[in-house]
Write a structure and sequence with these properties.
The structure is a homodimer. Chain A is mainly alpha-helical. The first copy, chain A, has two domains: 75 residues, Winged helix-like DNA-binding domain superfamily/Winged helix DNA-binding domain (Arc Repressor Mutant, subunit A, Orthogonal Bundle), CATH 1.10.10.10; 139 residues, Four Helix Bundle (Hemerythrin (Met), subunit A). In chain A, strands 1-3-2 form a three-stranded antiparallel sheet. In chain A, β2 and β3 form a beta hairpin. In chain A, α2 packs across α3, α5 runs parallel beside α10 and α5 runs antiparallel to α11. Chain A is elongated and about 75 Å long. Chains A and B meet through α3, α4, α5 and α8 of A and α1, α3, α5 and α8 of B. Chain A binds a DNA duplex through α3.
Chain lengths: 252, 252
DNA sequence: AATTGCCAACTGGTCGGACCAGTTTTTTCG
DNA sequence: CGAAAAAACTGGTCCGACCAGTTGGCAATT
């Protein structure tokens, strides 16, 4: 390992062990570089590494601060590169929706063909829950409905792929629910679309199911796109919200 | 945001969007710095950030390499349960083909819309190689052609998903090549289909490209199904065929 | 005295060049 | 031809300078 790696390691220890609280300021680059006996360039590389890991935040002219990370928020594997890419690159949302359009259409079609009675039961249950739940509740019911359909496709590959995208999918569903549901007419459109998908699958109409599902995903994408173009901030779903502004230090 | 942040962003984009596979080498620091118009110091800071996020790995004297992305969908290597399932249950082949039908259709469509001149060049190169190679050679050229198209879709999610299925995909392509190519008329059909896909993408006809691609995958599936129903043993493909180190076979 | 305005001293951000240290390729010579 | 030496890569580290935001205090003005 190079020196910069070692420095980033020592810095992290310093922060974690040293009891530096989130939001707390760490010494200036020049100070740290001198104290640790390395050049400022190397020190900066180490800082960038910690930055990449989300350990610190840096603000021009102010300094670097310990980020407020709860290391055990293992809820979703936030820190995965893809996850981060998604959070940082809004376009990725639409990329995902493009893929979902195909995959969910496929799943709905296969579900219409292959769903067993137990599958139908599960789908129905998820659908009911979707109807009854508060519109603004979290995205779980919505996702559950889609999930039930996917599993009814009886295609292990499809299930596996969609499962691999689950976390990101949850985010897009969350985004769509948060942004679209508040709009009265949109919520109705989405509900109608869900109903169409549901009925097509139950009626065993593969083509109709596929069309309904792809149309639904496309509708969500188009809607969010148009919302976004109207200036609405669509994608702002912070992975681990709150980010302790630097000025949170208590008055001395 | 500072320049180094922007650089790391662009780099990340370059890596995932460009479909750079894990393990692949990225250009040297001096090259990248020049190409992106920044100093080497800043370029290195950006690299360290990606390093901190686990996107790349760096080795002294050798270079920087794309790290294996995310464990979720990626890496269906041999010992994977799904891989095993596949070997044991031929039907999984058709499941995969079902999914491929959608995904490759999507990829071809997007490629027809978004391929850059460099993408076109790569696709053309892969296509040429596909025409010239011996029909019975391994499946690499065939897969390379499809891969080039997928990467031209400029949808990181799509690239990621297909990449995760790469190993299994290689097997299906291998299976199709081994079983279908020996049949004169089938080989011609497949070649014609490849040509249709190629021309549609080059001509920038998204719909035609999608249709050609889905039709192609469907044809492969249907053909193998019919072959199988005639009593041919279709799936007998050993799992660890190639993938061996450069020092191949070695028959003493 | 209170306010305003400005300047100096922080902070991080960027640059270029130089040199060291591994790795790979090319050249040279036995 | 083959092995050793040299050159041409690669990343790793350092220095010194300068740019760009931020902050606080000092001084001139009101």
């Amino acid at each position: 390992m190079g020196i910069s790696q070692e420095i980033s390691y020592r810095l992290e220890r310093l922060i974690l062990d040293g009891g530096l609280a989130p939001g707390q300021k760490i010494p200036s680059e020049r100070q740290l570089a001198t104290r640790l006996g390395v050049s400022r360039a190397i020190l900066r590389e180490a800082l960038h590494e910690l930055q990449g890991r989300g350990v610190i935040e840096t603000h021009h002219g102010k300094g670097s601060f310990v980020a407020s990370i709860v290391p055990s928020t293992a809820d979703l594997d936030d820190r995965s590169p893809l996850m981060h890419l998604f959070a940082g690159h809004p376009r990725t949302l639409y990329d995902l929706l493009e893929v979902r359009e195909q995959l969910e259409g496929q799943a709905a079609m296969l579900a219409a063909q292959r769903a067993t009675s137990m599958d139908r039961h599960r789908i129905t249950k998820a659908f009911r829950m979707l109807e009854s739940t508060d519109p603004m509740s979290n995205a779980k019911p919505d996702h559950g409905f889609h999930q039930a359909i996917v599993e009814a496709s009886h295609n292990p590959i499809l299930v596996h792929v969609l499962n691999g995208l689950k976390n990101m999918m949850l985010l897009t569903v969350q985004a769509s629910v948060a942004n679209l549901n508040p709009r009265e007419e949109m919520r109705h459109s989405i509900m109608r679309q869900h109903k169409q998908i549901y009925q097509a699958i139950m009626a065993g109409k593969p083509t109709a199911a596929r069309k309904a599902a792809t149309a639904h995903v496309r509708f969500v994408g188009d809607s969010m796109r148009s919302l976004e173009s109207q200036g609405a901030k669509v994608i702002r779903i912070s992975l681990n919200s709150e980010a302790a502004a630097p000025g949170t230090s208590a008055s001395p």
